[in-house]
Amino acid sequence: MWNSSTVMMIVEGTFATIYMTLLSTLMAYVIGLPVGVTLVVTGREGLKPNAAVNKVLDVIVNITRSIPLTRAIVGKSYGPSATVVPLTLAAAPFVARLVESSLLEVDRGVIEAAQSMGAGIPTIVTKVMLLEARSSLLSNLAIALGTILGYSAMAGAVGGGGLGDIAIRYGYNRYEFDIMIVTVILLVLLVQIMQVICMKLARKLDRRSTG
After folding, report:
1. Those residues with Cβ within 8 angstroms of residue 148's Cβ, 6 or more apart along the chain or in another chain
2. Backbone phi, then psi, for 136, in 5-degree steps?
3. pLDDT tens readout for residues 49-79
């Protein structure tokens, strides 16, 4: 059972899972980061309160779910590349909430000091809020990576590729439980590695900001 083709399949599945997770996370932040920033800026105590915009975005974030655009956008309905689309759409609102949470932790005094010196909204967002929240943003990135990796594993049940697909097709459907155990261990290791990297970076930035 454990011949070279099986090992290669596991290796390819691991890289496919990493590819799906990292690309989906990147795209989710491309969408979710500006949404999260806008939610904070337009909030009741934000830099530019706007109840209408804030409410609309809040509703969109709350109801957004993965929608079946995979075939139209990617050109096929299965595999890692196709899976990135629904993963991104599912993760973007989650990322927006994480960004919003991180930015709301920024000390109001720091923001008010920047305002008193005449800094505009773009400057305050990029050079004060995002900079001050960088440690929290990295900690939440670890959460996002772990969650999206979990999504990618579940996507394997419907032909999404990666380790989740191998666990279902071989470990579960063919009763090859050793393959299932290996894929589960690899998924756990990937989550741990990603979280350790993000948390170490977050602690390093914390020391720099307080040192």
Report:
1. 21, 24, 25, 28, 87, 91
2. -65, -40
3. 999 999 999 999 988 755 565 554 555 557 7
Neighbours of 154 (CB within 10 A): 13
Across the chain, mean pLDDT equals 88
Predicted model pTM: 0.87
2 φψ region: left (φ > 0), alpha (ψ -120 to 50), beta (else): beta
For residue 192, pLDDT over 80 is answered with yes
Q: Which string of DSSP letters, residue by residue, matches 103-131?
A: HHTS-HHHHHHHHHTT--HHHHIIIIIHH
Distance CA 173, CA 160 (A): 16
Looking at residue 75, its pLDDT comes to 55
User: Which residue pairs, CB below 8 angstroms and at least 24 apart, start in 61-66?
Assistant: 61/35, 61/93, 61/96, 61/97, 62/93, 64/89, 64/92, 64/93, 65/89, 65/90, 66/90
Region at 91 (left for phi over 0; alpha for psi -120 to 50; beta for the rest): alpha
The pair of three-digit structure tokens given for residue 181, joined into one six-digit string: 């155990």
User: Tokens at residue 49, please?
Assistant: 């309160």
